[in-house]
């Protein structure tokens, strides 16, 4: 699928899935029908063009695929005939956005937390099983089994897809926030593919988070999540060069940062810290606010950021927070100190599967003047990167350091900084 096709599809996937679930129940069968419709669209739309109303097109095809499937089951004939008439695709929306309603359904209490998030990313966001597995540092086969079990568990527990209530939202808010957090990060730092950023996923995650924040205005955790998203997204326009390569944080043109998002994000970050206890989300938002306050890379208050990471690793021990803290140590106290912190993470199997640990180490090695070792480490990180844009960036850094004549004066902070992602059972660096 090309980028335009993805953008059109992602916006309507949850609406189509929700429409089927609302009428038919059976999340597993409805989601399968939507996937069949998407497959048909991937063949048809490149030839005929994206229809004027992608939602109506997909809803019509998904309905047909659903009915085709249930016709083979005689016991479900009566229900098929009773429910065959769907509401017109262009009918007025329900009181609550179907995307949020479907998201809450996917965070059903019958599911384990990780399964709730995985199913949300599949049904609401339209991510592939491979993308979800990468976000969770797991294998594709294991994740496919988890998603299948999750859909079956919701169907067995009985659907709960109707009028949203404040109580239902509050009960499932933590799982919903985690799903939105992962959705945003998959957009901001894609686990695979060619693009350095997926703007449609970023926009959808912020839209849904705003909706959740409006529904739960006193929830400081949702306030913190929205702050973190806005402070991070404010840098999006400055994160890539004309060729599509990522630009490391210290090299970004800060005049291209979005001042409106920075202002709103900083205000929300302060609100989250004053109205609720310190939490992993509010601390991460505070880190983003410190970066936002710096007029240039040299003005960044790394001592304050390190202090925030000291709190974060206490609240949420794990490789994601530890990796972020190692970067902060390297910036506040020098690259050798940062490398010593990284050495403590060498035995972590989850970090070993990806390229983040190697990428951070390469940047610190370069700053320490170990150019040959940095060049090799950049290359090794590039071989592990699943996203093509990040792989090209890492390869470019390796090429830049090849040969004695290419060794530059190490500049501060040549580390491709990305926001942390949730662990499979907690938090994890992407």
Outline the structure in words.
Residues 172-272 form the DUF6596 domain. Residues 103-153 form the RNA polymerase sigma factor 70 region 4 type domain. Belongs to the sigma-70 factor family. ECF subfamily. One of its GO terms (molecular function) is sigma factor activity. The protein is mainly α. Among the domains are: 1-79, no CATH class; 97-188, no CATH class; 301-422, Serine Threonine Protein Phosphatase 5, Tetratricopeptide repeat, CATH 1.25.40. It contains 20 helices and no strands. The protein has helices at residues 3-24, 27-48, 54-70, 77-83, 98-106, 113-123, 129-135, 140-157, 166-188, 199-215, 220-233, 259-275, 280-293, 302-315, 319-333, 335-343, 349-353, 356-367, 371-384, 388-400. The two termini are 24 Å apart. The relative contact order is 0.08.
Short account of what is shown:
With 430 residues, the chain is mainly alpha-helical.
Helix/strand-derived category reads mainly alpha
The number of helical segments is 20
Ends apart, CA distance between termini: 24 Å
Largest sheet: none
H/E topology pattern: HHHHHHHHHHHHHHHHHHHH
Q: What Rg do the Cα atoms give?
A: 23 Å
What CATH calls the topology of the domain at 301-422 is Serine Threonine Protein Phosphatase 5, Tetratricopeptide repeat
Principal-axis shape: globular
- The CATH class assignment of the domain at 301-422 is Mainly Alpha
Specify the helix fraction band.
55-70%
Low-confidence parts: 78-96, 409-430
Mean pLDDT: 80
Please tell me the CATH architecture of the domain at 301-422 by its name.
Alpha Horseshoe
Question: Quick one: how many beta strands?
Answer: 0
Strand content: under 5%
GO biological process, one term: DNA-templated transcription initiation
Protein name: RNA polymerase sigma factor
Domain RNA polymerase sigma factor 70 region 4 type: 103-153
Domain DUF6596: 172-272
């Amino acid at each position: 699928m090309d980028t335009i096709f993805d953008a059109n599809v992602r916006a309507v996937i949850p609406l189509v899935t929700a429409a089927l679930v609302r009428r038919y129940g059976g999340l597993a069968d409805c989601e399968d029908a939507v996937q069949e419709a998407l497959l048909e669209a991937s063949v048809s739309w490149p030839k005929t063009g994206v229809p004027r109303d992608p939602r109506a097109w997909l809803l019509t095809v998904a309905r047909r695929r659903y009915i085709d499937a249930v016709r083979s089951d005689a016991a479900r004939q009566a229900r098929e005939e009773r429910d065959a008439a769907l509401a017109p695709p262009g009918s007025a929306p329900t009181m609550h956005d179907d995307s949020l309603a479907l998201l809450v359904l996917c965070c059903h209490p019958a599911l384990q937390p990780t399964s709730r998030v995985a199913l949300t990313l599949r049904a609401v966001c339209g991510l592939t099983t491979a993308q979800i597995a990468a976000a969770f540092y797991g294998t594709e086969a294991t994740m496919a089994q988890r998603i299948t079990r999750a859909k079956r568990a919701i169907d067995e527990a009985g659907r709960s897809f109707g009028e949203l209530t404040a109580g239902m939202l509050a009960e499932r808010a933590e799982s919903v926030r985690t799903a939105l957090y992962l959705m945003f990060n998959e957009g901001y730092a894609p686990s695979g593919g060619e693009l350095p950023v997926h703007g449609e996923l970023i926009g959808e995650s912020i839209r849904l988070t705003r909706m959740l924040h409006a529904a739960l205005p006193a929830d400081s955790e949702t306030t913190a999540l929205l702050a973190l998203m806005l402070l991070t997204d404010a840098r999006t326009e400055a994160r890539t060069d004309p060729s599509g390569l990522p630009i490391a944080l210290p090299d970004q043109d800060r005049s291209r940062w979005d001042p409106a998002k920075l202002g709103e994000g900083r205000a929300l970050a302060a609100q989250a810290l004053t109205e609720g206890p310190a939490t992993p989300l509010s601390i991460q938002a505070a880190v983003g606010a410190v970066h936002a306050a710096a007029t240039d890379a040299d003005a960044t208050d790394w001592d304050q950021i390190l202090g925030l990471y000291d709190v974060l690793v206490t609240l949420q021990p794990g490789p994601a927070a530890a990796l972020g803290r190692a970067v902060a140590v390297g910036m506040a106290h020098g690259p050798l100190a940062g490398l010593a912190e990284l050495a403590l993470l060498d035995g972590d199997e989850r970090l070993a599967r990806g390229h983040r640990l190697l990428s951070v180490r390469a940047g610190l090695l370069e700053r320490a003047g170990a150019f040959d070792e940095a060049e090799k480490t950049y290359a090794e990180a590039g071989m592990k990167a699943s996203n093509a844009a990040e792989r090209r960036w890492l390869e470019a850094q390796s090429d830049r350091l090849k040969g004695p004549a290419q060794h530059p004066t190490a500049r501060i902070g040549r580390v491709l900084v990305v926001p942390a992602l949730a662990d499979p059972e907690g938090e994890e660096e992407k």
